[in-house]
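ligand=5-O-phosphono-beta-D-ribofuranosylamine
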Amino acid sequence: MVRLAVLVSGGGSNLQALLDAGAAGELGARVALVLADRTCGALDRAAAAGVEYRLLDRCTLREGLSRAVGEALEEQRIDLVALAGWLSILEGDLVSRWEGRMLNIHPALLPKFGGKGMYGHRVHQAVIDSRETESGCTVHVVTSGVDEGPILAQAKVPVHPEDTPETLASRILIQEHRIYPRVVADTARQLPVRHRLS
Ligand code: GRF
């Protein structure tokens, strides 16, 4: 079974979608490790699911965060990594070592509304301010350019004139929970056999 690590910083609704898909046998992978860079609701979800989790505090670790992440992934014999609301920028060496085996979900239709500083409600506010008529979410491969890696899947939603960042975010989250487990399952299926550890 592919061993999946999920990296989180927030409420963890995408983590929950991955846990649920795993429990339903639809993920082709098992969530074997959850890493958080701050105290957050996602850690409670990991604990409730009985999954191994670790808090790697970004304020304490500072420049050592990426290294600590890399060590935890190796230690737990992780095959595939899913960033799910993870907010810290991972250093290039770790990213290149995991190239093709690290995914991210972004709450907009990349390449629009991505990059440094484009996270959380800032993304949705920018979409509303630009009077876009549609937004959505994107799953992509993580590369050294923030939100720039190859796109694997997108889902669209309409933007309504009365939308606030909150209403738009919740409409998009529904689609995130639908596409992320599917892309993880597809990627897990295509991983070279050497990465599939028991
Ligand atoms: C999601 O909108 C995700 O696209 C973004 O951060 C949010 C995380 O939400 N990267 P959750 O913690 O999974 O609920």
